[in-house]
What does this fold into?
Amino acid sequence: MKFFHWKKRRGSVKGAAAVLSVCMCLGLMAVPSHMTYAEEGDGNGADGSAMGRYVEQTLETPDIWIYDIAAMPDGRLRLIGQTKTEGGSGSYEMWDSADGGESWEKAAALPEEMNDKYFLNISLDQDGGGAGVVFCSSQDGQDFVHEYYSFDARGKAVQIPESADIDEIQMFCFGSQGELIGQGLGNSAFRMNRESGETEQTFAGPGDYTIMIGVCGQELLMLGDSEVQRYDIATGEPLPYDESLNAQLFENGTDYRITTTSSVHIVFGYTDDGRMYYVSAEGIFAHVQGGTVVEQLVSGGMCSLSEPGTGLIGMAVMGEDFYVVCQKGEKTKLLKYGYSPDTPTVPEKEVRVYSLKENEEIRQAVVMYQNAHPDTQISYETGLSDDGGVTAADALRTLNTDIMAGSGPDILVLDGMPIDSYIEKGVLADISGIRDAVREAANPFEAMVSAWEKDGAVYAMPIRFKMPLLAGDSELVGQAGDLTRLADLIASDTDSAGSGVIYPFNALLSDVYLYHVCAGAWRNEDGTINEEKLLEYMVQTKKIRDSQMPLIDEQIIGISEELAAEQGSRMPDNLGVDGLDFLEGFRLSFGEAYSIHEVNWISSVNRMAGNITFAPLSGQQSNVFVPYGILGVSSMAADPESARSFVEFLFTDEAQTQSLGGGFPVSRNAFSAMLHEKESGALGDLSTGTEDPETGERIIVDEYWMTQEEMDQLEKAVENLDTAADTDTVLMDAVLSQSGKCLNGECSPEEAVSAVMQTMNLYLAEG
It folds into this structure.
């Protein structure tokens, strides 16, 4: 049995992106302090509208991983970062710009002996020097410890001695007079002597835990779970509670907890006049400490700050301009926010997008599109909350009411919705023109963009897809042709060692791993449910479960039951296939491939174990793809042209090559580029591990890019996918809620089917 499963990045963990899932709200863009808004109805635009807002610009930077940015007293900007090399660590360098980030010159570098050290973070002071925290092994190599280094503006570096009275330092920041402040492990911060490392002042954070620290001039800010504690850096005395700042920071329960070692969710900055600034996914804000107003200068919803997968690293304020260093995947970028008096304060056009569940790819595309089209605001709304307080059926009833009243969204992300019913009722407009444009520009997989074509009209197209996949012993994979044969194969292949057990174990307590390759077979032509096919599904999935349960350790069953209870009847976003299964005695595994890396792990394990292959998973249907981000334009869209423009943008190379785990791109161009991004062979930066079930020894697997033969195999399999999975959420919830009871023996397959039929008949009658 598997006892643990872990993955780690080797050499650098900078690539671990913090996914920021945020609400895209449009706030007014505040103008610089020397300007004022035009009065309502009397703006300075040609049509009387208010003009002026901050706009985003991505600046070219040296080819380094940026650790921080600072505004120098003489008007220069300074970056510090590490160069990128093919074989290992690069040098830590400082670069200056005297023209607001338009060009850069190398100013200094840390000593060469620092190149092999891994800095978790580095902070710059106002004079261009700084300090950083190094992550390294202890002398005996058994534990991981931190070391601390300080350096001046010319790069001369010294190690800061570790003080016995200081908890392990997590990060540094600097007061306006050059004071070195370290955040300790837990709920404390320390003003430290830069040379001796001795404590000069201790600060206690709010509550039980300090997430991070920041500085505003001579004020220390300690950010907790629900409030900010302020201190005078020089005296160590606490400052009065800032009600307006706390209200703005923590409205709607905003969570700033750090989820990666390379970026954070909020960064503080300040100017010499005592004005505080901070940047988060919500935008850039200004505040006078102790004042009653927190002013939003930049709306995160109108720029890339709210783009999923974006983490924050540093900020500098220079004049009226803001410079923000962000992490996006494996790279860092520098964004400049400058005031544009000729840009409308509020975009002239609005497109409303609606989906049942949050779609990260759509969220990201909203930001990308708005950056390219500053005259258009994309408002994105979801119907289902994470707390499960609203059912899919309830959300759809509300949506349908709005649509019939003419107040519905312009674009529908149709995942989980009754697409055929919407087509029949005339809710969706014909987007065949978009399909034709996509054909020409992106060379898409034809079956996917034509899945909802009826009588020459196209009503919906997905932007991504997942591929149901079966992997394991080559002989067994070749025998599993459909649901019945798969069930027979699994039931007959078990032995006392449990070699036929399918992982993950919670698959034995829920049938979600087979749902998408079967659900479409239950639909009759008139949209009603085929009771006979549904019963076959219940019987065969229970057969799989019953044949495996005697071979599973009771402790594992308990863990799996807890996972199944947490999941409820909802389909998880990703049901991946784990190649490590085959190093632990398992002979088959199935799920849904949604990234190249999943197939890479199967390929990597095959290099070690041999005789491991993969093939499309068949159930009651074959050659199934699971569409994701299914787009439709409302036939009653307020601005059809803008709605179609946004939909078409989602199929461009720019949007299709961005992936946040939603699946493969439907564009052949993007899919081929992703598949052939690297040559076959060891990637060298990602390893994974498991435990030998017999010896308990740790097994390490390096990721290899799949072989050319495997790339051809995957490409051919994708080309043959021609059947869109049924993703109707109401049917899914009805079936999974009953099939779970059936698998656990709480009811018979016949009783489960009867309950599903009652739910669906009522739903269809209301429809």
The radius of gyration is 28 Å. Residues 15-47+243-346 form one domain.
